């Protein structure tokens, strides 16, 4: 029996940066004589265990700026926020620490520039995802639509000029399908910006490759994580024995019966220690004699 952990698993650079920033704010606050409250606007990353660990350290989570005071510190989550929300922090006088992923910030900048040039923007992503809402906040009202798949383009009216942006964790396959459909539908100018981040693309490519080489795939990450759900769907399209868990306690021994090769991969918001714990848990399901028998077969 062989258990491998994906090469690109663990925190992505954007999440690693956000966590490091929040840790720095906490450490600075603990060294200060002044007691100020620390908040994140929404969950810093989409991982319940990580978020709970920060709550235990005294970090609050808010969804409304009216709860803030001038002496508080608010850390903007890795998914980013709209300019309107950021301005509401400034108006209160709250100390703002921006932990937005640089790839997401780039998508904000592109959206803002395209909106100023009066492009109608097709934003590919999950309609209620915080990253998508933040990007959309840079676009003039009425000059964009959010679509999750190519079928949602069917009711779109003809536009003078169109630009396409994407949530940074979208799958390349879905992005390409929607772009192809747009080109088929309209003869107007269409500018396409593939704002899927490089790390997401590498993880998706690895998920497909690793699923073809193993008997069972375990995808580790928050159930509320868009990129983790996408990885699960991609892997499952190749290997039906694909399971999504948040931690090792959700594993079931029956998943690994008659199995020789197992792969463990993760979403962008999963610490590497969670993957190691999953691997150890799988190993614990098999006695030494079980493993020896497998080696002799």
Strand content: 15-25%
Q: Outline the low-pLDDT stretches.
A: 291-297
Oligomer: single chain
SSE sequence, one letter per element: EHEHEEHEHEHEEHEHEHEEHH
If classified by CATH, what would the architecture of the largest domain be? 3-Layer(aba) Sandwich
What would you report as the Rg, rounded to the nearest angstrom? 22 Å
Q: Largest sheet at a glance?
A: 4 strands, parallel
The helical percent reads: 40-55%
User: What shape does the CA trace take?
Assistant: flat
CATH superfamily of the largest domain: 4-hydroxy-3-methylbut-2-enyl diphosphate reductase, catalytic domain
Structure write-up:
The protein is an alpha/beta fold and 297 residues long. Helix 4 runs parallel beside helix 5 and helix 7 packs parallel to helix 8. The C terminus is likely disordered. It is 41% helix and 18% strand. It has a 4-stranded parallel sheet, with helices on both faces. Strands 3-2-4-5 form a 4-stranded parallel sheet, sandwiched between helices. Strands 7-6-8-9 form a 4-stranded parallel sheet, sandwiched between helices. It has 3 domains: 108 residues, 4-hydroxy-3-methylbut-2-enyl diphosphate reductase, catalytic domain (Cobalt-precorrin-4 Transmethylase, domain 1, 3-Layer(aba) Sandwich); 88 residues, Rossmann fold; 94 residues, 4-hydroxy-3-methylbut-2-enyl diphosphate reductase, catalytic domain (Cobalt-precorrin-4 Transmethylase, domain 1). The chain contains 10 helices and 12 strands.
């Amino acid at each position: 029996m062989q258990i491998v952990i994906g090469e690109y698993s663990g925190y992505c650079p954007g999440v690693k940066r956000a966590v490091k920033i929040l840790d720095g704010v906490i450490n600075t606050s603990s060294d200060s004589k002044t007691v100020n409250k620390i908040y994140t606007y929404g969950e810093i990353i989409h991982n319940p265990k990580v978020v709970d660990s920060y709550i235990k350290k005294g970090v609050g989570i808010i969804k409304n700026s009216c709860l803030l005071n001038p002496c508080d510190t608010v850390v903007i989550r890795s998914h980013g926020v709209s300019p309107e929300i950021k301005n509401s922090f400034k108006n209160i006088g709250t100390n703002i620490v921006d932990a937005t992923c640089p790839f997401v910030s780039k998508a904000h900048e592109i959206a803002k520039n395209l909106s100023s040039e009066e492009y109608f923007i097709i934003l590919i992503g999950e309609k209620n995802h915080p990253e998508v809402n933040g990007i959309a906040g840079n676009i003039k009202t009425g000059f964009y639509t959010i679509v999750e798949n190519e079928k949602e383009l069917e009711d779109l009216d003809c536009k003078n000029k169109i630009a396409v942006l994407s949530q940074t964790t979208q799958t390349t396959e879905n992005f390409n399908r929607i772009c192809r459909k747009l080109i088929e539908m309209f003869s107007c100018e269409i500018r396409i910006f593939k704002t899927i981040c490089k790390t997401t693309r590498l993880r998706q490519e690895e998920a497909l490759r690793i699923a073809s080489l193993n008997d069972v795939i375990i995808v580790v990450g928050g159930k509320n994580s868009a990129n983790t759900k996408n990885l699960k769907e991609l892997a499952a399209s190749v290997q039906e024995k694909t399971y999504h868990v948040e931690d090792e306690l959700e594993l079931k021994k029956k998943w690994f019966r008659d199995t020789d090769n197992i792969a463990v991969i993760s979403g962008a918001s999963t610490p590497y220690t969670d993957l190691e714990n999953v691997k150890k848990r799988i190993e614990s399901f098999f006695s030494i004699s079980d493993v020896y028998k497998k080696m002799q077969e």
